[in-house]
Fold this protein.
Amino acid sequence: MKLSISQKLITVSALGVAALAFSGASSAAVNADAAQALAKKSDCLKCHAIDKDKKASSFKKIAAKWHGKADAEAKLVDALTKSPKVKMTDGTEEEHKAIGTKDMAEIKNLIGWILAQ
C-alpha cells in the first residue's frame, strides 16, 4: 500500500504526539517537592548534592551511572533500604544510612527524582 505525502505526515505526526504524551506522563509521575523533602528529612543532602560531589557522588553522577539499566530501581531500593557498604568519593567505605520511610511509593518517587537529574 502506497501512502501519499500528506498521509505519511499525519502518521509521523501522530507517532510524535504519542511519544511526547508517554514521555511527559513518566516524568510527571515524579513529585520533585516530595522527593526533595524526603531527601532532606533522611539527611541524604548531608553527603549528596544534585550536581556536585560531596562526601558521596552527586545525584547527577548516580543518574548517569544507572541510566538505561533495567535493574536501576531495584538496586537503588536496596541501597536506600538495606544500609549496604558504599564507597565514598575519598575511597573509604561506609554503611549507607537507610531512608527515613518504609513507604515504597515515597522511596520509588525519590529514586525517580534522582534518576531524572
Summary: The radius of gyration is 19 Å. The chain has two domains: 1-30, 32-115. Residues 12-27 have pLDDT under 50 and may be disordered. The beta strands are 85-87, 93-95.
